[in-house]
Write the structure tokens for this entry.
Amino acid sequence: MAFEGLSNRLKEGIKKLLNSTGNEKIEEVLTDIQTALTEGDVDKNTIEKLMKKIRDDIKSDKGKGLVTREKVIDVIYNNLVEIVGNEETKINIDSVPFKILLVGLFGSGKTTTAAKLANYYKKRGYRVLLLGLDTFRPAAYQQLEQLSKQINVKIMGGGNDPIKAIKGAMGSFKNFDIVIADSAGRDILDSELVKEIKAVKETLKPNNVTLVIPADLGQNASIQVKGFHELLDINNIILTKTDGTANGGGALTAAYISGAKVTFIGTGEKINDFEEFDPKKFVSKLLGLEGLESLLEKAREENIQVNEESAKRVIKGEFNLMDVYEQYSSAKKIGSPQKIAEMMPGVPSSGRTKELLERQEENIGKFITLMDSMTKEELENPKIIDAARIRRIAKGSGTSEELVRELLEQYRKMKTVMKMSNNRQFSGLLRRFGIKI
């Protein structure tokens, strides 16, 4: 998981809030969130502004009545999204050849990132050239050359002078859609290296300057990002080393402070461990809420319509077999009952619940067939299903009386489970479908 250290701390706060029986823990959880951000290397001034905004947003809602735990989570979520970027940001390839200059610190993973970026664009049909301009680090060009062979992308550059390398390759730029230049790592406070990168930019005339910054840089990130931004007018940021236990808060807030947008994140050492940065999905993962977003996305893909009255009955544990039939039919399109439950933080994770869900997954198709053989009256009022009705249902569905009894038993158990569950979490999910409970 990217930013594991920061994420684990934030998840604990959200879990505490979800598991509380009332709203008395809200301030305690906000203090935990503040501590998590501080320990996660988020900039102090940014934290102060963020927590003030969160508390103000919660306070403004108190005038409208009781503030629910879900509303607090929404406020935290929305404000964190603002911090990490608010919108998806992409590099707009609006001319050919489009030249991208990668800059960054020593050891930031820039050379590997150059190859990952080249591979990303190659997969999307672009003709890509890698340009090796790191003449400072021994074997930097050889490393880039090996990576270029791995992804089958052309490479040029090398030598002892980056300016000569640029001029030597310029005549070939017209044969490519995108040129990705890997420059030497440098500390922004080193005057000689600053002079060199300014000359590289002036000679290459890049369409885009992207800063590669490691997630484990900590509070020093702000100094470096500000320095690079003032020197080169950074357009985008790629975060690397996000797959470890690094806190990552320093890198994220440095991006926020500079105004440059995080565009990609490196999630591992392999060439395909590279993904577009989506602020909303990123924050969902940080808070442990990604399952809900995935569930909603899958439901939308399948064009599943939620029956409002049925959903309300399920939430309250007052549902009948007609509701179960509808939920099973929808669930088959989204995934197994167990996977759906895993996406719902409010569902008890006890062995009893797991066993029940496993049995449901095994028999869900058979149960739908059974319910197809029931009358409307039986579906709406399962209590009337006696031994004679069980025999008729089993015969009509081509199954067994034992399976009919199992369905009825699971139905009763599921009602009990739902009454034990954190109904507020389910209510929060349904509100995203536009249903108010």
Summary: The longest helix spans residues 351-372. The domain at 290-431 is CATH 1.10.260.30 (434 Repressor (Amino-terminal Domain)).
